[in-house]
Amino acid sequence: MKLIKHITLLLVILSTSVLTAQVKFEAKVSKQTLGVNERLRIDFEMNQDGDNFNPPDFSNFTVVGGPNQSVSNSWINGVRTYKKTYSYFLAPKKRGTFTINQASITIDDEVYKTVPIKVEVTAAVDIPKDPNNPDYIASESVHLVAEISKENPYLNEAITVVYKLYVSPTVSVVNWNEIDTPRFNDFWSQNIDTQGQKVQNGTYKGENYRFLVLRKTVLYPQKTGELTIEPLTLDIALRVPTNRRDIFGGMLMTRTNRTVSAGNRTINVKALPEAGKPSDFTGAVGDFSFDVTASKKELSASESLQLKVAVRGSGNLKLFKLPKVSLPSSLEVYEPEYNEDVRTNLSGMQGSISDSYTVVPQYKGKYPIPSISFSYFDLKTKSYKRLSSEEIVIDVLEGPTNNASANTEGPASTVKQAVTLNNDQFAFIKTDTTFESMKRTQFFKTNLFWSLLLLPFLAIPIAIVIRKQKAVRDADVYGNKIRKADKLARKYLSHAKKSLGKKEEFYIALEKALHNYLKAKLHIETSELSKENITELLTEKQVEQDVVKDFNSILESCELARYTPIDIVTMQEDYDKAAKTISLIDKQAR
């Protein structure tokens, strides 16, 4: 009888140990019904360590956090308890009833799978104002704000957008990533470097907060009317306090995710006044100075001087053209060299731009360079201003005399000369003719006959020479690459060339050609054609920085040209620059 009791006890102990050692792998969700604006937490728990964990695809959700891994290992009354958990935070994409499929893991060479879970997503719900609810705490403790310096600027007046992330002292930020980045359509934009920014103390709606400046951007509006500034959106992982405390009395924290957005902002861009607008106004807005200088005023013929036309100050320096100079015909003038020394900070563009002309006099004499004027809109006085240079006289001391204009006061002589008639002017008309008879000759044994007979034999060495030249050309890899690049540039820019003279159509075609070339060359989509991405990809392909800079400047010209007056000469310059840049990229890209 005692033997039977001992055997029964032994079986109970063995069965208990077997049950204790049984592998468990299951999925648990924080809730099975949630609003489309709520978050779902799902935990995959196991009581033994495993390998090759494969989560489900979460096709109807966006993973906003995770996987977070935690392990607990405890001993209670001599019994070891082990638990390992993989946690995910999910945001539903739409309403409906969805199934979270199986996850799998390998434990002791056996594959275990969880049971599928159904989750119902309803319409948006009010987030409970429960001070102990992590989502509510996160919504009240983190704010993303876009601070705009001016909401009703003039066309081409600089404004700044500063994005600040305010965080309550009661929570801590683990990390964040950008979900949506503003593209600033209808603006010329430039980001200001914010690296090295430190957390600062401040107030938000009268309460103490810490804040960090995430992004600073300078904008110049290129259209009038209401323009929308797209929002910056972040997904932030936070640690928020709970109502539980540890054994030492310290408050326990829990992790949650929060999506914050600065929201759309609208600014009303005012047009520049028409009253008093100068006829030569090219869109300059700001506060400028203007001067025209010559490197020398006395020289000899065939020597050169530099004539510099410069604008300095603060304003939209990169967005307007300098006035052209008009010189006497006896001075040979070359195309100007454009120089730009502009820096951009929160106040906008500051610095100088200039055109430097190389001038070579041909004859002895004094040549006046007339006054040149420059017009701009002054934001301080809200009126147009005109600046004029002084007349410059170039004195050519030595050189040949221009006899054609020596006795005339104007730039070109208007002296008329009498026409002298030649008595033999009709001598070329023949009145007598001589006819000769033509004898019929046979084609056989004529020079033409022998030429055609020998032609095939002469063609053989010519064909051999041509074939050798073709082989040499095929072996010239670098030369072929150059020819291919030039052909590719002509191919993409052919439509733009046909549209020369039609500003809107030309720059649309030029921009499309540049985009199509990049998509074909870099294998990217239209959505990836940002300035930063283009610069990064071309740099990776070892394209020189000057070429990358030229390419980006052409794209900027395409954007700005639609809102500024452009002549056909400038359009031709932009076309030639685009063809040259495409050719250089194709030759340099690895």
TrEMBL record:
Q: Which residues cross the membrane?
A: 448-466
* Record key words, sorted: Membrane, Signal, Transmembrane, Transmembrane helix
Coiled-coil spans in chain = none
Pfam families per the UniProt record, alphabetical: BatD
**Could you say which residues form the signal peptide?**
1-21
Protein's UniProt name: Protein BatD
Q: Which species is listed as the source?
A: Aestuariibaculum marinum
Its lineage reads: Bacteria, Pseudomonadati, Bacteroidota, Flavobacteriia, Flavobacteriales
